Amino acid sequence: MSQSKAHRIVLRHAFAFLAMLAVPALAVAAEDAGQSHDYRTFLEGGKIEYGQIGDSYTADLVMYLAGNQFMVMEELIQDFQKKNPDIERIYVETIPPGQILKGQILKQGQIANTDTARNPDLYASVNLGHLKTLKKAGLMHDYMVYTHNKLELMVAKGNPKNIEGPRDLGRDDLVQSHPNPLTEGIFKFYGSQMLKELGLYDTVTGGAECKGCWAVEGKTWFTERHHRETPHRIENGEADVGIVWTTEVRHALAEGRSVEGVTIPAPFNMADKVNYALGALSSGRNAYNALRYMAYLGTPEAQAIYASYGFGEATPEELVLKPIP
Length: 325
Description:
Layout: H1 3-22, H2 24-28, E1 39-43, E2 48-50, H3 55-58, E3 61-66, H4 73-83, E4 89-95, H5 97-105, E5 109-111, E6 114-116, E7 122-125, H6 128-136, E8 142-148, E9 151-156, E10 176-178, H7 185-197, H8 201-205, E11 213-216, E12 220-222, H9 229-235, E13 241-245, H10 246-254, E14 259-263, E15 275-280, H11 287-297, H12 300-308, E16 312-313, E17 322-323
Parallel strand pairs: 3-4, 3-7, 10-12
Antiparallel strand pairs: 1-2, 1-4, 5-6, 7-15, 8-15, 8-16, 8-17, 9-13, 9-14, 11-12
């Protein structure tokens, strides 16, 4: 047996042991658009610092995560730190996973003219293909699925355009705002598939693949960096409707924003396909802390926090660490 394979087996056994300790029940069974919260450092005692990019090199745990979890992280991380008080400084980045993979892990990236570490301890995506890419690069070997989500349409409060469902995206009288297909997994892997199944892909996108651009002039806008730009555009009268995660609608309503949701029925909401996959990078500095966090995600407390924000709970089988296929 090779040394690297033996190391991975040891890590899996360590994770299993931590999970048994942490989850007995499951073991048995732009600034205005909110981008200022994309880079946070969580400190002991509940304090949060923003934009401290250098912490990606020095924190006790560094996580680069699919951005649509941004609303969960404060409650989740603070609960984790209460249970693990020795992990005093946790750096969390929440931006599109494709952008993280291509622009910060596979090559040196910068945020606000500051280099960001290429070796986070944990990386999460809504597409297993991203983790497979890291496996091919020799940077990740095991993963787990820890939560789920689904698509929904966001419209202005009161639904003034009387949008009833996803088929209305074919209407000529709507200005749309959707995640870009280059770096945002929500559209690249799921929103585009929904439109194709509805026979609306060319009508809505014009076949364009760009970001921060008009895919169809005056009709369909692709966001620059994050789908949370869509509620900002809707509130400012720049768009009538946009594809978002159902959790984003729930979060916006909780904040009292002037938007609401229109349900997308199955199977078009992709609820049966959206899996959040997480794995530890072999190049990370804090392997043990990464394992502890993954074990924590399987606890009833962590799953309940995700569920309270509208995410779907993972099954006990999904929460088991397994080799990337």
